[in-house]
Amino acid sequence: MRKSDPCVASLILALTLALVFVLIIGCSKDSSTGPGGGGNTGGVVDSFQVGLNADTLVTSDGNITLILPAGSLSSPQTITIMAINEPQSFVDSTCYQFGPDSFNFIYDIKLIIHYDESKLPPGSSEAGLGICRIVGSEWEVMSATLDPYANTLEATLSSFSSYGARVMATGQVYQGGKNLYSQADVNAFGAQYVGTSSYLKISGMYEQFWDLTPLSNITWVGGDLSIGLLDSLTSLNGLQGITVVGHDLNIGGMDNLISLGGLGGIASVGRYLDLDNNPKLTEWGGFGPGYIGGSVIIEECESVKNLDFLTGRGQLYGLAVFDCPGLSSLAGLGQLTLAGAIQFENCDSLSDLTGLGSLYETGTLSLKRNDRLLSLDGLNNLRVITWGLELHMNPLLQDITGLSHVYHVGNLDIEDNDDLTTLDGLNNVTQLGWLGGGWKFSISYNAHLIDITPLSGLQLNPATNFAIPCDAILYWNQYLEIDNVLDWLDAIGGPTVLDGYVIFWGDTLFGP
To answer: Which of 148, 80, 163, 67 has the alpha carbon at shortest distance from 115?
Structure first.
C-alpha cells in the first residue's frame, strides 16, 4: 500500500521534490488546489506515478483508497486525487476529483471512500449513504457497497471523474437487504422505514397482495430493487416516492402489469434495468430514469410497442430487446448517439430501424430472428461498429444499405438471411477489427446471396498488415459462385491479406 505525504516546502521546492519523488519512488504530492461544487477548497493534491503492476493508492488524509489490478493501465500514468467542495447533501471530506479526467481503464478499479460518521447531516444515517459521480451541479448514483463497521463505501470505476459520498435518504433506513413477501410485510416495513442500505425485494412468491401504498415513504434502495410474481397488480402505484436505485432495477413475472407509472419518480438507476416476462406491459406512465448506469434489458414483454421511456437519452451502456413481438417503434431512441450494444431478437413487428438516425457508434449491432425485418434503414448516421455486426436468421432481410456510412466493423457475422442477395451497404467498410473484435468473419447459410464484392474496400491494418485478421468463412451460400469470391479476394489484395484461411462451402481455398 502506498500513501502520499504532504509537501511542506515552498512551491519551487515542492515541484522539485515532486519530480524527484516521481523519478525515484513513483509517488508525489503538491499543494495545488482545484474547483469542486462551489469552488476552491484549499485541499492538497495527492499525485501517484502508477505502472502496469497491481497497486493500492491511499491519499494523505486517508479518506480515499484506490485498488488497481495488474494490467488496468496500458502504460504508466500519473494519477491525481484532489479534494473538492461538497455539493449539497454530500458528506463532509468525501468528495474528490480524480485525474486524468475521463481516463479509461482496461480493467475496472476499486474506489473506497472512508467517511466520518460524526459528519453526517442531522436526521441521516449510514444506511442512507451512496457513492455518486459529480457532474457539474448534478450527480449520478454509482453501484456501491456500504460497510458501516469500517465506515466505508466501495464502488468499481471504469474511468475517472469526480466522486463523493452522498446522503440518499433522510430518516430511518433499514440496514441491509429486505424481502417483502406479504401484505403484512409491506405494511410493517412502510410504517417504519424510508429505504434500505442494500436490496429490496417485493415478491408474490408465497402469497399475492394488492396494496403497495404503505411503501409511499420509501425514497432510496441502496442495492437491487426487485418486483415480481405479483399477478394481482396492474400498476406499481405506491412506489412513486422512490427516486434512486443503487444497483439493478428488476421487474419480472408480472402477468397483469400494464403500467410502470408507479415508478415515475425514479431518477437514477446505478446498474441494469431489467424488464422480464411482463406480457401485458404497454404503458410507461412517466417512467424514465434520467441516468441508467448499465444496460437496459427487455425480454418477453410481448405487448411493449415502443421505447419512449428512453426519449432524450444520448448514450446507453447497452440495449437488448428479446422476444417482444409487439415492438414496432424505435422513435424513443431518436437522440441516441453512442451505445455499448444494440440487440433486437424476435421482435417481429420491426420492419426497419427508423428511429436510430442519430446513432454514430455502437459496440455491437445484433439483429437476430426478426421475422419481418426488411431493411436496415434508419442507421444513416452510423459510422463505427466497434466489436461486431451480427445479422442472423432474418428471413425477409433484403436490404442492408442502411449501413452505407459505416467504415469500421469488429467481427462480421452474417448468417442464415434467406432473402439477402448482396452485401451492398458494406461498400464503405475499410477497417475490420482495427478497434476491437477481429476474430470472426463469417458469411454463411444465406440461401440467395450472390455478391460479396461490395465488401471490397477493406484495407490493411497498419498494426497487423492484414485486412482480415482471421479465417474468412463462406459456408453454404447456395447461389454464391467461386468467381465472385475470387473477384472479391483480388479486390482486397489477394489471400495474403488474411491472417487465416479462406473456406468456401466446406473447402479450404487458400491458407497460410
So the answer is: 148
